[in-house]
Amino acid sequence: MDIAIIGAGVIGLATAWRVAARGAAVTLIDPAPGSGATAVAAGMLTPVSELNYGEEPLLRLGLASRDRYGAFAAELEEDTGLPTGYRSDGLLEVAFDADDLRHLDDLRRFQESLGIPVQALTGRECRRLEPMLAPGVRGGLLAPEDGAIDPRRLAPALLAAAERHGARLVRERAAAVIVEGGAAAGVRLAGGAEIRADRVLLAAGPWSGDLEGLPPGIVPPVRPVKGQVIRLRTRVPFLRRCTRGVVRGSPIYLVPREDGEVVVGATQEEMGFDTRVTAGGLWELLRDARELLPGITELEFAEVSAGLRPGSPDNAPVMGPAALPGLVIGTGHFRNGILLTPVSADILSEALLEGTVPEVGAAFTPDRLVAAP
Ligand code: GLY
Hints:
Elements: E1 2-6, H1 10-21, E2 25-29, H2 37-40, E3 44-45, H3 56-80, E4 91-95, H4 98-113, E5 119-122, H5 123-129, E6 139-143, E7 147-148, H6 151-164, E8 168-170, E9 174-180, E10 183-189, E11 194-196, E12 199-202, E13 223-233, E14 242-247, E15 250-256, E16 261-265, H7 279-292, E17 300-311, E18 318-321, E19 327-331, H8 341-354
The site of glycine has 7 residues, from loops.
Pathway: Cofactor biosynthesis; thiamine diphosphate biosynthesis
Pfam families: DAO
EC number: 1.4.3.19
């Protein structure tokens, strides 16, 4: 089977790896693989912390994906010899003041009601786990099964794995899905060349709605949601594990890596396709991070970037066969793209190769969202 995949972020790359390993002839189309939200993301594998109430189906999907990550990362590292920065040493969530602590308490009750293991901690216990936390931190929660991965290592490893199984990368922008006889038949590139395929996967993140050729009602309703992220560096031990905080109602997270990088994120802004870094965005992140970890101002500044998450109307991904035969959609992962990579690759591989969606993906198929023609 010939499969064309539009978009080489982690979702397109991981699916390319999976279907190429099962014998499909894969063409990946992207002018700059792994350079969108993938390159900006911190890589937290924390299914509960960014959920809103009422998003239990998404939580189940996130938990399923987190639970597949260990084997997924091990298989990828073995297949390529490349590191992914995978770690599963837990997530610490801390509260800055009494209101933030009440918020954390609600979160703990929600998790416990769903049978998710979580440990409530006093401020002192939080500081024992993370000695650099501010003395005023009121308390926290430890989610022992959460973790992180380094998206900037994950993407090249996935590309290498896909290529190792025969996938071909075309570094060009996809302009249109070719539709013939009422079915997707390939992709037309911006330069005019055509790539014919039996199946097309549309995994272009927030740009998934921009392609020509698709009939009305097929295009997934995704929009860009901007996130600004800061990267710092430390040469001395600073933070041991992923740490999130709520500071006077504003969420903030810090993801440490073994090489000394500390990622601080993230803003959430509805600004269209705008990736400018703003003084206000940086100030808010550093202000809140410093409240939780005063020593952060000593760290070396490394980088600041802004990415575009693919948001969907219900915050959940859009994955599975489209109403147009031959087309499969894989976008809308919003704040969860890195977390949902293993399970999305499984769902999308089955959709591409067999035309079906496994039970774990049943609540996320495109028919729930796409507007009627
Ligand atoms: N999941 C991290 C973020 O969207 O900022």
